[in-house]
Design a protein that fits this description.
Bound molecules: 1-deoxynojirimycin
CATH topology of one domain: TIM Barrel
Distance between the termini: 29 Å
Largest sheet: 8 strands, parallel, barrel
Helix content: 25-40%
Radius of gyration: 21 Å
Number of strands: 15
CATH superfamily of one domain: Glycosidases
CATH class of one domain: Alpha Beta
Structural class: alpha/beta
Length: 478
């Protein structure tokens, strides 16, 4: 039976806005998600919000007990910027916010669970949004200030940091194709401005850690991007090229500047957007340019290559999307095969081979760096059952794909289930259930119940093997 290496780590993930609740307690400031959900409830499929969510802010002990029952090696969670700096800026520090995360980190460590901390998971302070959010270049420096207080307050115990989660989604879905807060629509423009500043924010924070904390704290700092696998139906040369172009102008947009040999944006992205901008009557490129110093700063600014993975697309080389837009700039039509098993989220379908292909492609493209899969999971429907065999099948397929990739030489060191428990799935509200634990959102106590997949994951972590066993219950009770 094939086995994961002994030092391979398994974890689960969440993010602050999606689970904490307590949106205005103990001095927390307003974030863009608080603001948008309250002002425009119609933007959320079921008109819900994260005001209470899983109430994890008040249920720390129960959550830690459940993590312990799972037997995870690490817990990936995020810090809410507005709990630390309520307005986003350093002149007002909220000690209660710092206390909360200190306690969480201490309790995790006391229970032998490594904290893996995301500094920014989409909940920008509303005050900063009002001055343009990520389209304002000053955001990079503001982020560095916020990251510094995180390193300073928690870095003696936190040794793995993620600066920013999913820059593509922040930029494209926040500022061009309005799916996520702040729901700006400025296609082909907003996304590149935001993306540029997100990259600079990450790079500056990485270099700040290197200079001010690394020798004392010795932690690793990285960034996490989402990557979809792309494949063609036709096998035609122009479609195969489109599959690569799509990856380069999606994942490569944020990874090439950091992990490629040359640094900077992928050449194909630079060339196409410069050319199309000109043809469209712009007298500058819609894709901003890094200075040589910035290229240098970003190059190598991540101690591991972290990614989230959820789906595969079929692609065709074809004029696509409105002008200007990321879709049109790519010139790639993306779609799915209707025979692939659907889930409740977006165009996520169950295609486990995509994860193996992604891992093999990353190995070739970026010279086999240390890779961590930092999110992957099955989106059940609102009535996702406790007997969630569909999720177990998903896990067998995807975790098995990671194991196969390792056996073929990919340097993968961690795998993370999204999500620890059902939570607020952004504009889909509570209609998408990703959890290993079911959460009853009608119960004021937000009762958690392990699904079958929780037992399956516990067994997998313990044996380091992907088996057909479907355990009936946890094999120990704490
Ligand atoms: C990625 C995001 O980081 C996370 O917040 C989200 O819930 C999952 N994808 C599922 O869509």
């Amino acid at each position: 039976m094939k086995k994961f290496p002994d030092n391979f780590k398994f974890g689960v993930a969440t993010s602050a806005y999606q689970i904490e609740g307590a949106w205005n307690e103990d001095g927390k400031g307003e974030s863009v998600w608080d603001n948008q959900c309250h002002t425009f409830p119609e933007k959320i499929a079921d008109r819900t919000n994260g005001d209470i969510a899983c109430d994890s802010y008040h249920k720390m002990d129960e959550d830690i007990l459940n993590l312990k029952r799972l037997g995870v090696h690490f817990y990936r969670f995020s810090i809410a910027w507005t709990r630390i700096y309520p307005t986003g800026l350093p002149n007002v520090i909220n000690q209660k916010g710092i206390d909360y995360y200190n306690l969480l980190i201490d309790k995790l460590i006391a229970n032998n669970i490594e904290p893996l901390v995301t500094i920014y998971h989409w909940d920008l302070p509303q005050k900063l949004q009002e001055i343009g959010g990520w389209t304002n270049p000053i955001m990079a420096d503001y982020f560095v200030s916020y990251a510094r207080i995180c390193f300073k307050s928690f870095g003696d115990r936190v040794k793995k940091w993620i600066t920013i989660n999913e820059p593509y989604q922040i930029s494209e879905y926040g500022y061009s194709y309005p799916l996520f807060a702040p729901f700006y629509k400025f296609t082909g423009i907003g996304c590149y401005l935001a993306g540029h500043n997100v990259l600079l924010a990450h790079g500056k924070a990485y270099r700040m850690y290197e200079k001010e904390f690394k020798s004392k704290q010795g932690g690793k700092v990285g960034i996490v991007n989402e990557v979809a696998w792309t494949q063609t139906e036709t096998g035609k040369k122009e479609d195969e090229e489109a599959a690569i172009r799509y990856r380069q102008m999606y994942f490569g947009w944020f990874v090439h500047p950091i992990f490629s040999k040359a640094g900077d944006y992928p050449p194909i992205m630079r060339e196409r957007i410069d050319r199309l901008s000109k043809e469209q009557g712009f007298d500058y490129s819609r894709l901003p340019k890094f200075t040589p110093e910035e290229v240098e700063m970003l190059h190598g600014s991540s101690d591991f290559l972290g990614f989230n993975h959820y789906n595969t697309y079929l692609v065709k080389s074809e004029p696509y999307g409105q002008r200007p837009s990321v879709q049109h700039d790519r010139g790639v039509k993306n779609y799915v095969d209707e025979s692939w098993i659907p889930t409740s989220a977006y165009d996520f379908r169950v295609t486990p081979w995509g994860l193996k292909n992604v891992l093999k492609w990353i190995k070739e493209e970026y010279g086999n760096p240390e890779v961590m899969v930092l999110e992957n999971g099955y989106a059940g429907f609102a009535n996702d059952p406790i007997e969630d065999f569909a999720r177990i099948d998903f896990m067998k397929g995807y975790i098995g794909a990671v194991l196969d990739a390792i056996l073929e030489g990919c340097n993968v060191t961690a795998y993370t289930v999204w999500s620890f428990m059902d939570n607020f799935e952004w504009s889909s509200g509570y209609s998408c259930r990703f959890g290993l634990f079911h959460v009853d959102f009608n119960d004021p106590k937000r009762k958690r119940t392990p699904k079958r997949s929780a037992y399956y994951y516990q067994n997998l972590i313990k044996t380091k093997m992907v088996t057909d066993i479907k355990p009936e219950s946890f094999d120990h009770n704490l």
